[in-house]
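Working notes for the structural subgroup meeting. M.R. asked for a predicted model of this chain before we commit to crystallization trials. I am recording the input and output together here so anyone reviewing the notebook later can reproduce the run.

Input as submitted:
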Amino acid sequence: MADWVVDSGDSRGLPFAIVDKKDAKVFVFDADGRIRGAAPALLGLAVGDDAVPGIGNRALSTIRPEERTTPAGRFVASLDRNLRGKEILWVDYDGAVSLHPVVSSKAEERRLQRLATPTPLDNRISYGCINVPVKFFDNVVRPAFLGTNGIVYVLPETRSAQQEFASYDVDERARQFTLAPSIEANLTQR
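Returned structure, recorded in token form:
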């Protein structure tokens, strides 16, 4: 996916992040595609790629477990503050989805422990936001997006990335461009 973002110019020269929901990981890249860092993530409780319409305007207490998805898509993101004054990266402002340092105020949720496990099987717990380790947010996310917008690509889990982003296989495209001149030469020799 990162190769396609750089090859296609889809990030428009901005830093970008890729959220892999299946593996519960976040990868952050400079505008030129160099990786700045990667970390595990906590994601929306429900499997799915679409947000419930109007969910960003609802109180958390009204959001049912099956509605707690991290929506897939391409989002223009920017650093800002939430209602409590904490710095976050707004991913989908209208859908109330952000990427932020893990919130560990409810001990029974074991969010810090979930981030530390080697498997993504227990990383589904949020209302849709993307929780990352505090040090990762402070040392990787904040510096990458400071003073600029960026792009966040949230990979789908119920459809393909090609369907979601109209992306292509960079290696296959390069192979086709390499073969094209030789095919054309063969056709003109006939």
